[in-house]
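Need the bound structure for zinc ion, inputs here:
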Amino acid sequence: MIAKPPPREGSMGFLLLPPYRVQGTSIAGETTCVQIPELDVCFDMGQCPRMALASKYVAVSHGHMDHIGGLAYYCSQRHFQGMGEGTIVCDARIAPSIERMMSGYVELERQNTPYKLVALRPDEEAQIKNNIMLRGFEVEHTVPAFGYAVVEKRSKLKEEYAGLPQEKLRELRDRNVEITRQLQVPLIAYLGDTAPGPQLIRDEVRKAQIVICECTFTEPEHKERARVGMHMYAEAIAEWLRVLECQTLVLTHLSRRTNLGYARKRLTELAGPAAMRKVQFLMDHRTNRDRYDRQVAEAGEKVGPIREDTDD
Ligand SMILES: [Zn+2]
Ligand SMILES: [Zn+2]
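Answer from helper R.:
Posting the output first, comments after.
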């Protein structure tokens, strides 16, 4: 009998959630890397898919291998391909370990891979684009772990000055009158690996346009495993959905064994069909491709090059 070729590697998850794309791969214990190309950021780098190299920032949630295994490779490849140094944003508690890991590679390779490391304490921010900040906050997991919120800062004219002519406003500004106030718009929240806790109802999480969170366990008999591993599970997601204001909740980090049809059915039973309308699974390739095809048809356009990257 003739030997078979190796199986094809799994494809990237992809959701078009205008104005953002959420793409990458996430399987519990194996790898998680979720990229938002429009924001130049990846969340976690369990393995480094080629497309992730294009993002200048990687926000690392915690040190488990399925979230950082591709981090050194990402930095090295970006440098090798002439894309500039990568910037790692992480929880200050794990920054020294990341530095030691990176210097281990310098020793092994006998060459220096340049990278930037931005260590955040809770509620500190790193700027990733003009007026767009990446804010870290603690979540609850078996090791030190962070979640992130991408927050846009907009300045808005104070109500008392609305409707004034331009020259009047200029005059006030010249007199150093503070005519604007700062508005914080949470765009995206990424929770990493987390047990349910108060971090889920932080303002910038609850009000984010897109929330990306793990849901490692969906079966009722796995609740104890979720508790021990400090992970999210179906009941907690359903309860959380009642207070989430997001347009879309993207679920990641399901185990490879989880049947997505079952997961969807069980969550629908718990949360109700109305709440489920905002829930998407990053790795549900068939559903997501149908959804994308409908988006393309509605836009009246031909299927673009994005489609070519998403085969089964
Ligand atoms: Zn994980
Ligand atoms: Zn973990």
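Comments: Residues 95-109 form the longest helix (15 residues). Residues 62, 64, 141, 193 surround zinc ion (ligand 2) (CB under 6 Å).
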